[in-house]
Backbone:
């Protein structure tokens, strides 16, 4: 539900089973409880295997590589690598299997996912600024003025553009598109002016 607690609670109170059906998984693919379901190696030492609540089993090495690859690919929500399994791997488990570099990347992905999906929080668009700005609950629909980040940058919370009071967001976006189109025409004009000459015989 992309961090949308209100939408999740609405589904729960409506009695929708889809909230809980997301954890339904496929049957395990191996009859041997000592087998890793990624590399299919057999392990006598069960401490080298991790069994999830969905009954999928993986060796520590394969699971670690899976987590690392998923994080490098930009995934903030890590699911069990079992076939069509939607069980979410806990942050505690993931962080316990990652090195310091991967931990930082994973935490950054989680924070970024939370901010991007939160209606009341946005990153400051100023280049180089890492601040996230939160507005009070209930103020979004009535917010008319630009807001100021602690870095000194003023921007519109609705469209993430530079402060444009009292012009509407739609007008700013339309104007930006128009400027980009005109910029292409101006570049063509300057190239012709700098690289060509008028024919002396033509009038």
Residues:
């Amino acid at each position: 539900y992309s961090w949308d607690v209100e939408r999740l609670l609405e589904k729960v109170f409506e009695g929708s089973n889809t909230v809980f059906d997301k954890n339904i998984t496929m049957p395990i693919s191996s009859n041997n409880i000592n087998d890793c379901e990624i590399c299919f190696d057999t392990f006598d030492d069960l401490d080298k295997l991790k069994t999830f609540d969905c009954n999928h089993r993986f060796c520590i090495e394969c699971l670690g590589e899976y987590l690392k690859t998923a994080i490098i690919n930009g995934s903030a929500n890590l699911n069990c690598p079992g076939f069509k399994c939607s069980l979410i791997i806990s942050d505690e488990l993931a962080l316990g299997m990652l090195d310091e570099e991967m931990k930082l990347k994973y935490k950054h992905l989680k924070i970024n996912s939370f901010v991007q999906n939160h209606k009341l929080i946005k990153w400051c668009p100023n280049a180089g600024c890492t601040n996230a700005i939160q507005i009070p609950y209930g103020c979004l629909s009535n917010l008319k003025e630009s807001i100021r980040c602690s870095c000194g940058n003023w921007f519109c919370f609705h469209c993430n553009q530079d402060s444009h009071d009292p012009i509407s967001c739609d007008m700013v976006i339309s104007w930006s598109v128009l400027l980009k189109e005109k910029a292409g025409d101006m570049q063509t004009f300057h190239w012709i002016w700098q690289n060509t000459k008028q024919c002396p015989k033509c009038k």
